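Q: Could you fold this chain for me?
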Amino acid sequence: MGDPLPLPPRRPGAKRSRQLPERPLSREAIVAAALRVIDDEGVDAVTMRRIGQELGTGGASLYAHIAGKDELLDLVFDEVAGEIPVIEADPKRWQEQLKEHLRAWYAVLLSHRDLARVGLGRVPTGPNSVVGMECMLSIMRAGKLDDAVIGYGADLLAAYVTSSAYEGSIWRSGVAATPEEGEAYHRELEAYLRSLPADRFPTIVSLVPALMGDVGDDADARFEFGLDVLVRGLVARSKK
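A: Sure. Below is the predicted structure, expressed as structure tokens.
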């Protein structure tokens, strides 16, 4: 047959078919492609067929490396967990360290669109996830919390971080796609709450400044408030 011939010149105005670059197919490449899709479009855009297209192959070829979409999402979630810094527990600053760990976890999830929803209702057990789990538990153990408090507390803290991040992604992509839309919604909501009959809803009306003020609008401030309440509660519960 001889060497392959070069491509002939294109007729003026003709379009050449788009050729996707060949990429080596591996579990790591599949996970990286899925994460790119999530960062661009969200979790719902992830399908085996779509990831195959991202990699220039058919979706069926991915099944030699990944069992299916559920496993793929678990792998992506674990990959992202590797972005969370590991902290060496210090008994003298364990409360602040615990908050630092949870802040980092929250920030990482927020940076990947709605990936946080993958962690809801699941116990991540991948290699990066268990490193993060060990980090959080060791910090709590350094605080001399009761074992039962650590067990329940770890679950509570994980749910708080994950749900807070997911709510943030919903707000950014749905309720308020732009800061201007968010501000407009808050103005309308505040006006609505103030318009409620004070004789029937005296508590709501009296709390509108607190509900809609800086604390109400600042997601980071709300998250910090929750962290403080939860950590203080763990300490108080452990002393009983």
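A (continued): The radius of gyration is 24 Å.
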